[in-house]
Amino acid sequence: MVLTFDVRGVSGHANHTAIHKAVSYLASAGKLPDDCRVLSLLTVGMLRKYLSFLDIPISWLLPSQLCCIIGSQGYQQAKRAMLCHRTQLLWFRHLYILFSRYMLVNTFNVIPQEPKHVKIY
Question: For residue range 90-100, what is the model confidence (pLDDT) as tens digits?
Fold first, then answer.
């Protein structure tokens, strides 16, 4: 399974959108293994992004193909991972850790893949 960003790259960062383009190309060209599934993380608007746990019911009810709700252990693990990158931990990333819904809930859609073994009779 490959988890990637959607076309908007969550924050619009050039690296995030480039990863989406590369993975989408590989999926549409049929260049991934047969049993590989590709899911893209849905970008939400700024308000929803910082609703923290209040976004869980919204994410659960809105259409997506996979909704992952992270428990307290998952949140603590994600927080520890963010704290490992002290040089990039600017003031706004502390706010992200505290308020971002992406620390608690993530929604994904499947990126379609080109069929590999199509037989036409």
Answer: 999 999 999 99
* Residue 13 confidence (pLDDT): 92
Residue with tokens 């919204």: 58
Residues constituting the chain: 121
State which residues form the domain around 87.
2-110
Q: What CA–CA distance (Å, rounded) separates 105 from 98?
A: 13
Angstrom distance (rounded) from CA 109 to CA 115: 18
- What percent of the chain is modeled with pLDDT above 90? 81
Helix 72-83 to helix 91-99 angle (10° resolution) is 170
* Structural domains of the chain, count: 1
Query: Residue 121's pLDDT is what?
Result: 65
E strand or H helix at 108: strand 105-110
Q: Let me know if residue 8 belongs to a domain.
A: yes
In a domain, 121, yes or no: no
User: pTM of the entire structure?
Assistant: 0.85
Domain membership of residue 17 (yes or no) is yes
With contact defined as beta carbons under 8 Å apart, do 115 and 30 qualify? yes
